[in-house]
Specification:
By secondary structure, the protein is mainly β. The chain has two domains: 76 residues, Pseudouridine synthase (2-Layer Sandwich); 102 residues, 2-Layer Sandwich (Pseudouridine synthase). The chain has four helices and twelve strands; from the N terminus they run ββαββαββββββααββ. The strands form two sheets. Strands 1, 2, 3, 4, 5, 6, 9, 10, 11 and 12 form a ten-stranded mixed sheet that branches. A hairpin with a 7-residue loop joins strand 7 and strand 8.
Length: 208
Amino acid sequence: MPQILFLDDTLLVICKPPGLLSQPGRRPEKWDSVITRLKPLYPDAVVVHRLDEPTSGLMILARGQAMSSGLSKAFRERRINKRYVAIVNGVMTNDEGSIDFPLIADWPNRPRQKIDFATGKPSLTHYRVLERNAAQNWTRVDLEPYTGRSHQLRLHLMALGHPILGDPLYADPQTYVRAPRMTLHAAHLDLDHPLTGEKLSFDSPVPF
């Protein structure tokens, strides 16, 4: 069961474990998910943003459709702030920067996304180096997605030449086997409570 960090009549904030879908897939073996586990306890729970199956960390769920619409609007208007931590292959040169590559679904190879400068949707990620390990050839980075495209962080880092360790879709085989799981964690989340306006801030310890 996902760990519940905050609960009231309007929303839930949970910590999703790696290897669990946010929502069920089409095939029976993909039925297990955050929402199918929480629905028996909170029948009005609605997913308003997703984490990829191999990603762990903080997620918000709304209580009811009206609240879902309000939280979805807050995400679109960037009034909900999210930050992630990842360990990537190689030693990054710059201490911080931005990755601005437009993304679109790679339909013949779904669920993969791809960079497409002609038809891709604008996608922007800010990054900041937290730690470099030259001996083991990896870098720990703080990531702030300005947009929220599917697989944005994973694809942006791969395109920069620093794929995430353990990424089953975008890492090369040597980088994929360097970690027992994908080293991407949704570590911070803050928002104004949709009813009271109270500032809510959550941090989840990075498990790698």
